[in-house]
Amino acid sequence: MTAPSQKPRYSVVVPVYNTGDCLRDLVTRLQCVFADTIKASFEIILVDDGSMKESTKTLLEDLAREDGVMVVRLTRNFGKPGAILCGLEASRGDWMITIDDDLQQSPEDIPLLIAHEGHDMVTATHARKQHTLLQRSTSWIKAIFDRAVLGYQVKLSPLKLIRRHVVDGMLAIKTNRPFIPALIRQVTNDVASVPSEHCKSAQGRSRYSFKKRWGQFSDLLVGNSNFLMQVFTRLGFVVAGLSFALAAGVIARKLMGIPTQAGWSSLMVAILLIGGLNLAAIGITGQYFIRLLDITSKKPAFVIRERMGAPPAK
């Protein structure tokens, strides 16, 4: 732990939403790991992402009384990425550690990440996740797009170690739809991974619904890359090329005197195909314009209601 006037070496950022007593267990285990194993100064930043449960609010007020623990409350539920970004902005350490509040990642694995401090970012990877089939499927799809869209060569997890200058670069990027892996990738490509055990959620049922997963996935595709625009641009050129080839074929048949029978079905298929592609392209373009409108209107990624506990970041 560190005195209020001192700058800690490590800042641990934990996004919190309707968490139970496992949050107290997490804080205790973090304190033990840093005091007994790592033996370095640290601070713990708990970001309350608009929790509705009174028990969570009471627990956070209690934890804010502990030395080296800061609680930051947001005005509403901005989503996990916004909460993490808020915690990173409040952090004072040379290294930032992000970890979820449900104990699926073990605090005792943090020293494994610290052993690779030569890199800008170190992430824990899990050979097998204690998730449902749907959660494993969506995680697998996301890993594919992390590699294809962002260029990651490792599988990511919520447990990360991030260097200070990378965090400063992430915070300099103004976005109201933050996607943490994309922000990291825009600042650095020096990324390493270490194997780590994945545990069952102490919260029981996952609070990260399919709707939230889809929202985060769409932020990756639309808000943090031009992937879909590239796909439909290339698809448009392919369809246009096929149309020109078909037209050339029809003209050649007529010049050669080969009879050509007009087909209503094929004509309708062509119209529907091209019309469908046009509608999809317009819809995707609209999504990009919505993102641009959000940015130009300066909608915040998070709004802080209050801070409790440790002093705010300098």
Describe, in short, the structure shown:
The protein is α/β, with parallel strands linked by helices and 314 residues long. It has ten helices and eight strands.
Question: Can you describe this structure?
Answer:
- There is one protein chain.
- Helices cover 49% and strands 14% of the residues.
- It has 314 residues and is an alpha/beta fold.
- It has two domains: 210 residues, Spore Coat Polysaccharide Biosynthesis Protein SpsA, Chain A, CATH 3.90.550; 70 residues.
- The chain starts with 9 loop residues before the first strand and ends in a 5-residue tail after the last strand.
Blueprint of the fold:
Blueprint: E1 10-16, H1 22-38, E2 42-48, H2 54-63, E3 69-74, H3 80-90, E4 95-98, H4 110-114, E5 121-125, H5 133-150, E6 160-163, H6 164-172, H7 180-187, E7 191-195, H8 210-223, H9 227-255, H10 264-296, E8 304-309
Parallel strand pairs: 1-2, 1-4, 2-3, 5-7
Antiparallel strand pairs: 3-8, 4-6, 5-6
Helix pairs in contact: 5-8, 6-7, 9-10
Largest sheet: 8 strands, mixed
Question: How many distinct helices?
Answer: 10
Indicate the overall shape: elongated
CATH topology of the largest domain: Spore Coat Polysaccharide Biosynthesis Protein SpsA, Chain A
The neighbouring-strand order within the major sheet is 7-5-6-4-1-2-3-8
Q: What oligomeric arrangement do these chains adopt? A: single chain
> How much of the sequence is in beta strands?
5-15%
Mean pLDDT: 82
* Uncertain stretches of 5 or more adjacent residues: none
- What is the N-to-C order of secondary-structure elements (H for helix, E for strand)? EHEHEHEHEHEHHEHHHE
> What is the CATH homology-level superfamily of the largest domain?
Spore Coat Polysaccharide Biosynthesis Protein SpsA, Chain A
Task: Identify the CATH class of the largest domain.
Answer: Alpha Beta
* CATH architecture descriptor name of the largest domain: Alpha-Beta Complex
List how many beta strands DSSP finds.
Answer: 8
Distance between the ends: 18 Å
Rg, Å, rounded: 25 Å
